[in-house]
Amino acid sequence: MLKIPITVAYNLEVSSPGLDRPLFTAEHYARFVGEEVTLVLRMAVQNRRKWQGVIKAVDGEMITVTVEGKDEVFALSNIQKANLVPHF
C-alpha cells in the first residue's frame, strides 16, 4: 500500500444506491429475493405497467413477483425500471 500524505484540501464524497436501490440485472433481483419491489414495465401485462410485490424467484431472464397473494412472472427485458421499496 502506497502511503503518501495528502497536503492539499479535498472533499471525500461517498454515495450508495440508497434504500430504494434500483435493480438492473438478474443477479440484483436474485440478491433481493424476499424483498418488496416496484416495477415499471415497457409493455403492459394484464393492462398494467406498474406493479408492486415481493420478489419470489429469478429463473434466467424471468422474475416471479408475488402481487396481492398471486405470483406474476415478468421478463427482465420487459422491465423498464425497478426499485426496492424501503420499509421503516
From TrEMBL:
Cite a single GO BP annotation.
ribosomal small subunit assembly
Gene, per the UniProt record: rimP_2
Q: Name one GO cellular component term.
A: cytosol
Q: Where is the Ribosome maturation factor RimP C-terminal domain?
A: 23-88
The protein's name is: Ribosome maturation protein RimP
Organism field: Escherichia coli
Classification via PANTHER family: RIBOSOME MATURATION FACTOR RIMP
